[in-house]
Design goal:
Blueprint (H helix, E strand, L loop, with lengths): L1 E3 L5 H11 L10 E6 L3 E5 L3 E2 L6 H20 L12 E6 L2 E6 L13 E2 L9 H6 L3 E2 L3 H16 L1 H6 L14 H15 L4 H8 L3 H5 L9
Antiparallel strand pairs: 1-3, 2-3, 4-5, 5-6, 7-8
Helix pairs in contact: 2-4, 4-7, 6-7
Length: 220
């Protein structure tokens, strides 16, 4: 993959994060193979997008790889902040299937401090939407909550494609239509007998508990 900077600092930040991941023993994070200055970089693996409709075995591998990758990143005090379907790459090698988490432009690896949220709209942490907060301290649980949305996107793709995620916002005096829908969805997830345990696992950074999401993929 060749990546070209869209701003003055986003790519230099990603290069700095990827340098911390060089020679990582975790197969679920990318490897930077070359960089030229701060405006270009090349990374591997060469893979394909993760899309809905995969067989159950592959869908379960997606869950397992995503959670294992997040556990590794969080162990290095790196919070991705933009976990969504488009930031996962599926690498197939014979019978081996691996998922890699990409795109570290907005990743956070600093000391606890208040920052702006700059990730994808659908990944916006619920706690910011609940409190109309703009500045926050990123937490590992934010990535784990976002991973729940990834699984829901795989299960109900049309609902996510039709949803105007770009209109979600925090910091407003009153939530708009799209923000209200997301908050209602999170309440439904928390109250659900099926999804509630995953919500609580994310809240507690229980990676083993999050792995049970793989069991929702049972189909012909």
């Amino acid at each position: 993959m060749l990546k070209i900077a869209h701003g003055e600092s986003s790519l230099s930040h990603e290069i700095r994060i990827l340098e911390k991941l060089r020679n990582a023993p975790c197969p679920h994070v990318p490897e930077m193979v070359w960089t030229r200055g701060i405006r270009e970089l090349g990374i591997v693996p060469i893979g394909e997008p993760v899309l809905p409709g995969e067989p159950p075995l592959i869908s379960r591998k997606i869950v397992e790889g995503m959670i294992a990758g997040l556990k590794y990143l969080h162990g290095l005090c790196i919070i991705h902040r933009d976990i969504r379907l488009s930031n996962l790459v599926l690498k197939r090698s014979g019978n081996d299937i691996n998922v890699v988490i990409i795109d570290y432009e907005t990743a956070f690896d600093g000391d606890p401090q208040m920052v702006d949220y700059t990730g994808g709209y659908i990944c916006w942490p619920r706690r910011l939407l609940d409190t109309a907060t703009e500045l926050y301290t990123p937490q590992p649980s934010d990535d784990l909550f976002a991973s729940i949305l990834v699984i829901l996107h795989l299960l109900f793709p049309s609902r996510f494609v039709e949803f105007k995620a770009g209109n979600i916002q925090a910091g407003a005096d009153a939530p708009n239509k799209e923000t209200s829908k997301v908050l209602r969805m999170w309440q439904d997830i928390e109250d659900s007998k099926i999804w509630g345990p995953f919500y609580r696992a994310a809240q507690q950074s229980d990676y083993d508990g999050m792995l049970w999401m793989a069991d929702v993929f049972c189909h012909v």
